[in-house]
Amino acid sequence: MPSFVYVARETGTGREIRSTVEAATEQAAIAALLNRNLLVVSIQEKVGKKGRTSGGKVALQDLVIFTRQLATMIDAGLAMVQSLQALADQTPNKVMRDIIKDVCARVESGDNFSEALSKHPKAFSRLYVSMVAAGEKGGLLAEILARLAVYLENTARLRKKVKSATMYPTVVTVVAILITTFLLVKVVPVFGEIYSGFGAKLPGPTQFLINLSDLIKKYFLLIILSAGGAVYGWMYFIKTVPGRAFWDAKRIKLPIFGAIAHKICLARFTRTLASLIRSGVPILEVLQIVSQTVGNVVMEKAIKVAASDIERGESISGALGKHPVFPSMIIRMITAGEQTGKIDNMLERISDFLDEEIETTLSGLTSLIEPILIVFLGVVVGGMVICMFLPIFKLADIVNPQPGQGK
Asked: Which of left, alpha, beta for 47 (phi over 0: left; psi -120 to 50: alpha)?
């Protein structure tokens, strides 16, 4: 449907409004604006770039701010269009601003808010759209948006904790690799040239380090290309369907880190399930949405199988309990929630409990990794230094080699 850019004034207040509206013709657009008590000053058809209707991807933090502010405005009694226009004017992110303007234009042209959001799948997930649609149907849009904001804030907070916990070991590991490479390529060859002039046999560790240095210098470019190719190949593999299934099955079984990854997926599952059930979304649709947002193929398949069992009349706890990926503790708490009729509250408690466990594990892991990495860096660098200075302990034999000690 064509889109028209217009400038109009409100008949009551005289306030100027600049926005867009979708209509079959220019006359239909003018008629739609008149029906909203807007006096058209100018209007022309908007010529947009092909393929831009779905908008772009926005940062989670921008989405949190948008949702929280929109919930506050609607709860205060402001109209949807007026709220969206205000948010578009004050949003610094250009992509988000364009998306809000497009959503506003679609709402002005008669679309439901959830329908307008669904036109931008990169910015608004199916979970987001489904909860908004449920809020519109139940007349609880402000409350649903507030819940969405809380959900997104919790998701952002958990993501930030994981990034913070992995940042330090990543930086230290990269520094260790760079220092080791520098020593092998630049420092060790200098010692090798000095020792080669003496003509004596070097200690085994020193000779091994010099040989390793020569090998790396000779094939340095090939080693870099091979390492880069291996990383690229692995990243490409885990993006394929079989690769992702393989990695998702293995990563939740890894020591220490596997338990964290598993708990993160479970926390996302329980929190999303609680939010959707509380919002009034039908349970089968809830499970379909959750399976796509849980972030693990193994859990996704388990949820889809459980959804089929629930459709045949089985309870949620009974259907999920058939799959080992869901711990028995979670199944027992879901069972208690079903028996008391407060499954959403129980799921919320489970997600809070899992978040606390994740935070505690990450804090302990960070405290443990820090000294381990420091010791590792010290052993690698210190070991190389000792290897290169070992010949100095036998300096007399190296400078004045006895018969039979030469190379």
From this structure: beta
Q: What is the pLDDT of residues 226-270, one digit of tens each?
A: 999 999 999 999 888 888 889 888 888 888 788 888 888 888 888
Sort strands 3-10 and 16-22 into parallel, antiparallel or unpaired. Answer: antiparallel
Residue 156 CB partners (closer than 8 Å, separation 6+): 60, 61, 64
For residues 203 and 394, the answer to whether their CB atoms sit within 8 Å is yes
d(CA 317, CA 84): 41
- Report in angstroms the alpha-carbon separations of 127 from 131, 213, 272, 348: 6, 54, 8, 16
Distance CA 286, CA 274 (A): 9
Mean pLDDT of the chain: 82
pLDDT confidence of residue 405: 52
CA dist 26 and 257 (Å) reads 59
The DSSP bridge partners found for residue 4 are 21, 45
* Secondary structure (3-state) at 200: strand
